[in-house]
Design brief:
It is a single chain. The chain is 56% helix and 9% strand. By secondary structure, the protein is mainly α. It folds into 2 domains: 1-79, no CATH class; 80-133, no CATH class. The radius of gyration is 16 Å and the shape is globular.
């Protein structure tokens, strides 16, 4: 197993370096066929979303559309994969930061009903009650 860093995802999605983008595509094809196993951390996903949104101006829905096929690769070992899918839904549907969306998805997965926060974005998530300390 090998770890994949953010810059590979950015090169692949933006295609700002065709040669590197093609090499990453070839890697992803091997991963999809289970010829190679990769993993990444939550920070790689967060950094990818943040960079695509803030540095490249890519809209959230497009980011979601780019990421979902990668997250579904057969040879990608990713703990709690379903959390990312729910977080991407919240990120788009509720128009909140991916960090808040991820935290909301974690809270829901754990069956927690309340969250201490001053961030009103959590008020947009059904099933979570925001509590001000």
């Amino acid at each position: 197993m090998r770890f994949i860093d953010t810059n590979l995802l950015i090169r692949f999605f933006t295609k700002d370096d065709k040669e590197k983008a093609n090499k990453v595509l070839a890697l992803f094809k091997r991963v999809e066929k289970n010829e190679e196993i990769i993993t990444m951390s939550p920070l790689v996903i967060f950094e990818t979303i943040f960079t695509l949104e803030k540095s490249y101006g890519i809209p959230g829905q497009e980011i979601k559309n780019l990421l979902l096929p990668i997250l579904a690769l057969k040879g990608l070992h990713l703990a709690n994969r379903e959390i990312y899918e729910h977080a991407l839904d919240f990120y788009i549907e509720k128009n909140i930061s991916f960090a808040d969306a991820y935290n909301a998805a974690c809270v829901i997965k754990e069956g927690i009903k309340e969250i201490y926060s001053y961030d009103e974005d959590f008020d947009k998530i059904e099933g979570i009650k925001r509590v001000v300390p």
